[in-house]
Amino acid sequence: MAEAIRDDEGDKNQNMAAWLLGIKTLKIQPYHLPTLGPQDVKVRIKALGICGSDVHHFKTMRCANFIVKKPMVIGHECAGIIEEVGSEVKSLEVGDRVALEPGISCGHCSLCKAGSYNLCPEMRFFGSPPTNGSLAHKVVHPAKLCYKLPDNVSLEEGAMCEPLSVGVHACRRANVGPETNVMIMGSGPIGLVTLLAARAFGAPRIIITDVDVQRLSIARNLGADETAKVSTDIEDVDTDVGKIQNAMGSGIDVSFDCVGFDKTMSTALNATRPGGKVCLIGLAKTEMTVALTPAAAREVDVIGIFRYRSTWPLCIEFLRSGKIDVKPLITHRFGFTQKEIEDAFEISAQGGNAIKVMFNL
């Protein structure tokens, strides 16, 4: 693995990266890259978005069961320009603009061979400990995980392929189509990309919920047909279900829980029609207490997703064709200086009106 070196070892030509050194402690330091392999490319990162998992690492040095135990380069939602190609790379050239899929699977286990490489137990994922991330001037990455961008898709939009991939994978898992009425719990960044993906997959009617009216207003502007302000109190599940169903005006075929609390999952299970599906995207809690038996008696299927697989070509096509516009999700932009990385992560951690915070390197 590439490692940090001391500031006094570097010079102006050193590759620099944002290292997470401790709770809320980020520092731009030199970053030695691994040797370029025959099937690798070296990419100059030009755009990188802050993800919710990055914020968890920043605030607590962990995200779910992934714990930061040593200094780590943060970040994984990225796009850039090819600077060097390995000897066996034929698909890309120096100067190509690319979006990077951040997870490197082993390619050999039964899950990888079956196509479910996102579930590979040996996955090495940018900015997920112990693997260094991509908030750096340059990274080395397998060419097969770098996707060329059309001329009309910007590098910022290329970086947005990563969060958009979560929504696309969820819609595939839930078989969303032109006859699927959809509910989305939570209008944070993942809820909003799920909204965009569901619409692109043909969902005719979409309702989105949140506890924050400002977020619901954003969802409306992005194309939600209905919105519903809900409570955080588990005692209000029945009231919220009635509110959601009345606003929807028809049966909810698929619900996406983009939060992952007892309250949101209980609401989704109860609001979904008999024979429908609930897809759990948000992983806010490692354990939940929900009433599964009534949902099972109504044959409501519960589906999980973890990250994504084989989504970049479709995401890029959605962006190229204009079927999805992710640009309104980018609310804040920063450069790559010590002060700016600190400010960017603080703004992202505060939530508020920040949806996607983007670095331009």
UniProtKB/TrEMBL annotation:
<dbReference type="Pfam" id="PF00107">
    <property type="entry name" value="ADH_zinc_N"/>
</dbReference>
<keyword id="KW-0862">Zinc</keyword>
<dbReference type="InterPro" id="IPR002328">
    <property type="entry name" value="ADH_Zn_CS"/>
</dbReference>
<feature type="domain" description="Enoyl reductase (ER)">
    <location>
        <begin position="22"/>
        <end position="359"/>
    </location>
</feature>
<dbReference type="InterPro" id="IPR013154">
    <property type="entry name" value="ADH-like_N"/>
</dbReference>
<keyword id="KW-0520">NAD</keyword>
<dbReference type="GO" id="GO:0016616">
    <property type="term" value="F:oxidoreductase activity, acting on the CH-OH group of donors, NAD or NADP as acceptor"/>
</dbReference>
<protein>
    <recommendedName>
        <fullName>Enoyl reductase (ER) domain-containing protein</fullName>
    </recommendedName>
</protein>
<dbReference type="InterPro" id="IPR020843">
    <property type="entry name" value="ER"/>
</dbReference>
<dbReference type="Pfam" id="PF08240">
    <property type="entry name" value="ADH_N"/>
</dbReference>
<dbReference type="InterPro" id="IPR036291">
    <property type="entry name" value="NAD(P)-bd_dom_sf"/>
</dbReference>
<dbReference type="InterPro" id="IPR045306">
    <property type="entry name" value="SDH-like"/>
</dbReference>
<comment type="similarity">
    <text>Belongs to the zinc-containing alcohol dehydrogenase family.</text>
</comment>
<keyword id="KW-0479">Metal-binding</keyword>
<keyword id="KW-0560">Oxidoreductase</keyword>
<dbReference type="InterPro" id="IPR013149">
    <property type="entry name" value="ADH-like_C"/>
</dbReference>
<dbReference type="InterPro" id="IPR011032">
    <property type="entry name" value="GroES-like_sf"/>
</dbReference>
<dbReference type="GO" id="GO:0008270">
    <property type="term" value="F:zinc ion binding"/>
</dbReference>
